[in-house]
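Usage example:
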Amino acid sequence: MQGRLADSLLHIIDQADGIVPFPRAEFSAFVSRLATGPVSPSVFGAYCDLVLALDADSLDEAQTLFREIADAQNVAWGPLIKELADPDQDPDSNRYRRFADGDPDMPLIIQPPPADLAQNARRLLSEAFALIDAGNPELSGEVRVLLREIVLAVGSENIKGLRFDGISAFMLWGGVVLNVGGYKTALDMVQALAHESGHNLLFGLCAHGPLHENDDRERYPSPLRPDERPMDGIVHATYVTARMHQAVQRLLMRGALSQTQIPQAEQANTENAKWFASGMQTIDRHARLTPLGREVMGRAQDYMREYT
Amino acid sequence: MAAGSKQQTVKLDWTRLLGFDQVGHDFDRASTVKLSDPRLVKLGLKPGVKVGVKT
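Running the assembly step on the lines above writes:
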């Protein structure tokens, strides 16, 4: 993703040169930093905002965004866990709020979380990382590479009566928003980490092309949501369900769970297997998968074959 | 010179831009595009949203 972002920014530099004043040397230095280490999800958001500003001929706004991107530094491998701040005061939080509400099918407003609920979510995250560090280090390492930021927030039911548990967005790559009221146990949080990092993994795999060729206006039943979704959502949901199953199954098989957690894990994976089978049924019937999509979903099917 | 004072346009080739290259071929860009534009569903799509009511 960062390589494709660098290529995209170089194209923008070429096209904007002489039209929008921007710090060319500093901007080029930032493009070089993309090759040396991770950057904040907000950089991807700033890039998206920049393209849209240029498309709208909002050159003053574009100039500000050029400066923001040029000033961005490499960040530590993640994830940084933080609470959503006041979006009216904090630019990064404002961007998370805007991008979280970017889906016309899922109007959604996220807000800063109450301190006690945020503290509880932090505890669950700590326990979840301890579980996967001990019992699923493959997942632990992958989550730490894929996720740079976990943003804790709350959101009330929207006009469709839906409430979010977790959000990943292509254009905030490496960042996820978790609803502090959405998870009750460490095992729930393990699945959340597997789920949201799975979306970000797929976003990265799609940097050079899509998983399917279905029309985005088509809608299909989702294994995880009561509302119908585009095929992109079905493929993502089905894939991350397999990933949630694998996360839990490894903890079970490696003896990493307590006697209390074992029945919770078995119940969770019964549901994960059911959701995967439901999603694959829709994909088999309706999806026009690309070679990349067939490879990705084929591997998920290979793993799940034993459990469905 | 204030940016934008000449009303110049930056012409971008969306096929060379991460994310925007996945917008459909029939995408009509005659009007100003915003993030929430349903025509940008591939960009704005958030498959990571799941809902409180699992089915």
